[in-house]
Structure formats: structure tokens, C-alpha cells
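Input C-alpha cells:
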């Protein structure tokens, strides 16, 4: 089995190659007139979409504000669930939750790495 350092080095090399190819791809797109025109059109459509969304949000008023509050509440509860799950696992206990239909759920673990400054 490869060490984590070997895997990390391989990942860095693949990411570097990916970055180079993406740069070439973007250069190729930039040299295509039709792409530039389409990108400008897309930008205008996104701005129009944003204006329409803002109008709809203003029309909904307090109800839309409630939607935003609910999104934040969901994020907070998800973070609390993560914290409780990690604490439970640290104690060596298993985690089991079920929804209203008795469907079991299991935790999904994800480990990522970030550079230390």
C-alpha cells in the first residue's frame, strides 16, 4: 500500500497537469469569437435573472426572510449533528438515526487536508 505522502505527491502532480490543460482550454475558448459572444450574452442573462429574483424576493417580503432564516437554521443544526456525531465516535459508541419512515441513516466521513501557514 502506498503511503499517504506518496499519494499526496501524486495528487499534486495530477492537479498541476490538470491546471495546465485547463489553461490551454481557456486560451482556446478565448480565441473563439462565438464563445466570447455567448459568454457576454450569458452574463446579461445572469444579471436579468438576478433582477427578477430580487423583485420576487421583495414581493415575498417577510416570507422570503423566513426562508433565509430556515436555511441558516438547517446549517446550524447540521453542524451540531456533526459535532455530536464526532463526540459520540470519540467515545467509541456507534451512531444510528432513523427518519420518520424508520429508514436508517449512517454517517459519512470525509477527511480533507489544508496547508498549514
Amino acid at each position: 500500500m502506498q503511503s499517504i505522502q506518496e499519494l499526496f505527491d501524486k495528487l499534486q502532480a495530477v492537479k498541476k497537469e490538470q491546471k495546465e490543460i485547463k489553461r490551454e482550454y481557456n486560451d482556446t475558448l478565448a480565441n473563439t469569437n462565438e464563445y466570447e459572444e455567448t459568454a457576454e450574452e450569458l452574463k446579461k442573462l445572469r444579471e436579468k435573472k438576478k433582477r427578477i429574483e430580487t423583485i420576487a424576493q421583495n414581493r415575498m417580503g417577510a416570507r422570503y426572510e423566513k426562508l433565509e432564516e430556515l436555511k441558516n437554521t438547517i446549517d446550524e443544526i447540521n453542524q451540531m449533528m456533526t459535532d455530536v456525531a464526532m463526540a459520540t465516535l470519540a467515545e467509541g459508541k456507534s451512531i444510528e438515526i432513523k427518519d420518520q419512515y424508520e429508514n436508517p441513516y449512517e454517517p459519512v466521513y470525509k477527511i480533507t487536508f489544508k496547508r498549514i501557514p
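Helices lie at 4-30, 33-60, 62-90. The two ends are 30 Å apart (CA to CA).
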